[in-house]
Amino acid sequence: MEYASFWKRALSFIIDLLFINVIIIWPFEASIMSYSIEIRMQDFPMKIYFIVFIIFILSMLYFTFFEYYLSQSPGQLLMKIKVESDKDIGFFKSLLRNIYLLPLFPFYLLWIIEPLYLIFYKERLLEKITNTRTVMQKSELYKKYNLRKV
């Protein structure tokens, strides 16, 4: 088992954000743009807050769904990394792993804590809590012949 590097994780997250932008944010773009032309920050309508909250919830469910059913998001698939656990990754574990995406206190503190923890300990804090890890995916040759990397 080889932990995925910080840069592979970061690139996979950026790829996932591109997917999220297309499938989640883009459908809300017209609603957001119609308000942004004529508003000031103090007049920010509650509807925009609600839309942003829905976008964050859908983004969290995006990661949760893919990690629960496939053990990897599309970005992780492209970067050849995946989520592993000693036991099956249940829906609750997948949800808890991605709770940092909620834009509510105290969860948004994890936007700072998670990357720092990853840099220093080579795993995310929420991975440690959920007993999961993000690892390099073995190539098909290694799987087929049960070989180890030298």
**Unreliable residue stretches:** none
The run of helices and strands is HHHHEHHHEH
Q: What is the SS-derived class? A: mainly alpha
Radius of gyration: 18 Å
User: How far from one another are the termini?
Assistant: 12 Å
Beta-strand content bin: 5-15%
Number of domains: 1
| Overall 3D shape | globular
Helix count equals: 8
Average pLDDT score: 84
| E-strand count | 2
How would you explain this protein's 3D organization?
By secondary structure, the chain is mainly alpha-helical. The protein has one domain (6-138). The chain is 60% helix and 7% strand. The protein has 8 helices and 2 strands; from the N terminus they run ααααβαααβα. A two-stranded antiparallel sheet has the order 1-2. Helix 3 crosses helix 5 (91-97).
Task: List strands and helices in order, with pairings.
Layout: H1 6-25, H2 29-36, H3 46-70, H4 74-79, E1 81-85, H5 91-97, H6 110-121, H7 125-130, E2 132-136, H8 140-145
Antiparallel strand pairs: 1-2
Helix pairs in contact: 3-5
